[in-house]
User: Which sequence fits this backbone?
């Protein structure tokens, strides 16, 4: 039985508490939030869970083995570092930290203490995303041509981070997991429409050493909700629509065919191939339930989570560089994850 | 009765012939194509239309008052210039020419001879696009925040122009007409996946002096067809989906609200406002029919078409600059339409 | 503070408990279910709620003022009658009872004791359904022509009731509430595909004294989920799609126009009128929350609920007659709600 | 080279002329319509086709081998009979005739003269419908449970026939072709909302000796266009949506599973099975082109068309019986195609 402490009972905190409460082998010992009314809500729902406004109570509590940090980004590093130093396993909401430097320190601290450090890249634990990764790994798409993602809606305006840190974080973690490659450079552009507030709409492009392009559109000010990703390969292509109730992943047997003409490349005939479409059955298990199970398993077995500190670092690195590019009107910036580059 | 000659009977040529044949006040005197089998097809369909492989026959024919040029881009300038010099009114398929310089020469030639020079920015003649322009002009959207367009599908691979010149040309002409403002700088990025072929996927960003951003995604290699534009204003927002059979334009009474907090801008509360959605009734008249009518009216009245040479020039200019930016990995390039800048 | 007992913790029970737990002025005192594992689940979630396998414990408990009955249909009558006799206000899951006779007895018992008897016609408490009723009442649709509803999916196969009692119950209660008229006759037809099991697909038609037709398609064996209702009037028409995330109700300014010809009715010109479409903003408050609030208010004020026993009776009556018609291959059966007819 | 005469240049006539004009081995010799302006339109489009207001001119013309009859239903029988007697092969728009008796006479006349008699059940010549038939024939759906079709929109109000004869004719011919079985009884119900006009909304149910039910909803007064058919089998299910641009036929690997319980049928466990979805690639050849080709082939080879007189008769028979049932408020009527029954 692993004892859990949950810090932050805002948007994600309640989902973590609910999943941990109903998971065999886990027990929520205490939760923490600065707002009294949130604590009252926890009390009404789960009278046996200890509540506090002081997270240090949780860190001191020997019945707590692991801590879930579901607070604003700016506080992630400090809370996670203290939790690790208190010898707690740590799961942090995405993005892992506010800077690459911070992520690196957490990774080292966790490694030194042989503690599990995990980041909540939620979508990686959905069957849709896992299925896409499998299809790519097995080569069913052929050579990847592009990855195009749109995540827009009239969303909650964040004050502390721009729309890339709020929304693109999901898509970068999905892309990274599905394609299994990292970009070599990033360009981003965005606009802030409200004075004193961060960018509310942004476009991000990833360049790779391979002849692949990845592009992301994120927007807090869209009249409709769109969650659609296209992945094009030379053999097959995927449409991943997270708003579809059941057929979230559709695989199209479409591509291009090349026929060399008599006079060489100038006579090249580019044709199209269109075949069947296929939507694999997907499990509907809630991602957070799979993820909570995985966290517990990693703690038990001392294994590295799929979304470990390094996965978190890679996404933070992309966001950091994208923000830098956005400040230079989309000038592309090289990525370097060596310690020396930071 | 205005006599027409149509040069090029490929994709758009037949649509022009069909619309002109059935339009009162117009008569198709002759058509020209280099391919014998295309001429045979015209003969089968319209036995009374003169066919030829030599466009000069049409330019010499005094029964022909106006010429429609529906050939590949590279030939637009030369054919249009000769037609103007033969004192024919000229309508050219989009994009008007392959370079800004060429567009300028055509504009001057037409002006000197008092001939109508028109470019086929087809969508400008749809009721959907005209309705959006009216909504923007009347201020119903409030201050414009962004224009985001996606035009992708498994389309006909062009060998002579990249995907921007083939697809983005539509969206740039729509954007220009609907918003009524011109960008001050453009950045574009794209990838060619087939050796020796032009870019098949591209992203284009327009920057404006106003705090607006416009972004375009065009793609010849997408598994599904998407034709969707979002236009965000601070009062209302539009979703324009050209694939919708009837409600192509939806107006959402959504926006953001700002409440200054006691401590000023740092306490600013950004809220959301969501109201009704409304889809205006749209006429289903074929755009080409409206456009052909407009061309004939301009010839009769000696008036300037909505999509005149200058409108064509502006779009060519954006495409030219975008292509230059694409060669520099998305480095943004300033736009200048003064003669001195070219 | 009203004390509640909830009998049945299957599909709807947990929703009732959750809503009552978080509602001001209400308290869930005890819940009952025959299955130990369900009681254990309640204990895990709400350690302070008393659980039992014997519903009589709840009926005897003086701290309980009102009872929610969320058990299979067959048990509704007996449980509700006992609850009323124990002087509890009663809310029963739809359909109210298994027979018209039973509904009548409950109505009389509740009236005699001045207790609130309410049936959970859930959709009546959604903003979508309330908005449609308002539009009809205000005459915006003009004369009603038809009501056509489809509710199909691969659903939970019921063993005790046929698909009409399981699914059409929703649509009959919505139709009755929105149109405000009752059918004079009903015809229904259906098929059972599994030996020994009730009908799994059925079609039901309601005839009215007015020139209106209502039709319902319900199906447990459909590959896709459909929840769509069309309501046609001579002035405007509605499409109500419960699966739409936000624009559930769309109002089309469409209809037919009649122009009498010179030679009278045989020369009548029937034309079509097509105008704008409009989707009113809908509140997203959970129906059960609105409904629970309404139940508590009725108890406090001694008023009749919108979905009172008589509303429940009317729906049960339609289902009873439809089932009779279904046994006669769709022969239509007159409806009579006078005591004498039963 | 087969010479064609086309009688009627209203809605379908132009489509037939266009397809025959461009088909190798066919030639349109003459067309007939009572309206001068329609003849003028033909002249403008096809100056070499002879036009007349007197269909007898076409029947007398020895250059005409085959006649396409695209006139209102009431005239089908008389025109077809005269054409057959003039030794012309005949293709008649759906429905074949206005009565079963008339269809029988035409079938006999064509058989006696060894002429091809074909009915234009257009959808039978689409790849979507042919693919569904193949899937059913190959047993991929397993035992068929139901066939449910919806064909509604704000359509052209017909004065001479009710909505069943106008719209359900399509679906009955599709159902008959795909399932390969004929109903044993039919029930239909409908309403006329405009005084003096035929029913504008109707529901039709087919009963079969097998445990299958087929149901059709047709409606001229719907605010939206729907063309959707569900076909349920115990192994797989189909959704056929004719408005989908490319994936018109989707095959769902869904069904029900039965597990006998210890105590026999009352303990039967009905479970659900959900697997992948699959959309076969469909050819986009225009149905009328395939059909015209087939007509010409049948004439050449003296073979029976897929949609021969008997197929036409079967559909007319269903419509006739449905209309009779509709007059009796949905009372089901047995079908009998023996001569003796008529």
Assistant:
């Amino acid at each position: 039985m692993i004892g859990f402490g949950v810090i932050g009972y805002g948007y994600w905190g309640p989902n973590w508490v609910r999943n941990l409460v109903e998971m065999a082998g886990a027990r929520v010992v205490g939760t923490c939030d600065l707002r009294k009314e949130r604590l009252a809500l926890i009390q009404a729902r789960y009278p046996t869970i200890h509540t506090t406004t002081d997270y240090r109570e949780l860190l001191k509590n020997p019945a707590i083995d692991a801590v879930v940090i579901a607070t604003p980004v700016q506080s992630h590093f400090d809370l996670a570092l203290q939790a690790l130093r208190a010898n707690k396993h740590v799961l942090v909401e995405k993005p892992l930290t506010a800077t690459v430097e911070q992520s690196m320190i957490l990774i080292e601290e966790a490694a030194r203490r042989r503690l599990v450090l995990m980041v909540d890249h939620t979508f990686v634990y959905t069957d849709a995303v896992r299925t896409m990764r499998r299809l790519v790994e097995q080569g069913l798409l052929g050579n990847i041509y592009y990855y195009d993602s749109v995540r827009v809606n009239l969303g909650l305006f964040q004050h502390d981070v721009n729309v890339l840190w709020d929304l693109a974080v999901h898509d970068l973690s999905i892309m990274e997991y599905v394609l299994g490659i990292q970009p070599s450079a990033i360009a981003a552009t965005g606009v802030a429409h409200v004075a004193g507030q961060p960018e509310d709409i942004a476009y991000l492009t990833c360049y790779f050493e391979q002849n692949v392009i990845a592009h992301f559109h994120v927007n807090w000010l869209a009249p409709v909700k769109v969650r659609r990703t296209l992945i094009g390969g030379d053999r097959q292509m995927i449409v991943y629509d997270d708003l579809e109730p059941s057929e979230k992943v559709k695989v199209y047997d479409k591509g291009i065919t090349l026929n060399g003409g008599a006079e060489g490349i100038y006579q090249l005939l580019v044709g199209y191939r269109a075949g069947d479409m296929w939507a694999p059955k997907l499990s509907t298990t809630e991602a957070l339930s799979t993820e909570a199970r995985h966290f517990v398993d990693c703690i038990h077995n001392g294994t590295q989570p799929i979304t470990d500190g390094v996965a978190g670092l890679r996404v933070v690195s992309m966001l950091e560089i994208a923000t830098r590019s956005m400040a230079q009107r989309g000038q592309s910036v090289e990525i370097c994850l060596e310690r020396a580059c930071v």
Observations:
- Chain C has two domains: 2-121+287-308, 124-283+318-334.
- Residues 66 and 88 of chain C are 5 Å apart (CA to CA).
- The longest strand of chain C covers residues 264-279.
- DSSP finds nine helices and 15 strands in chain C.
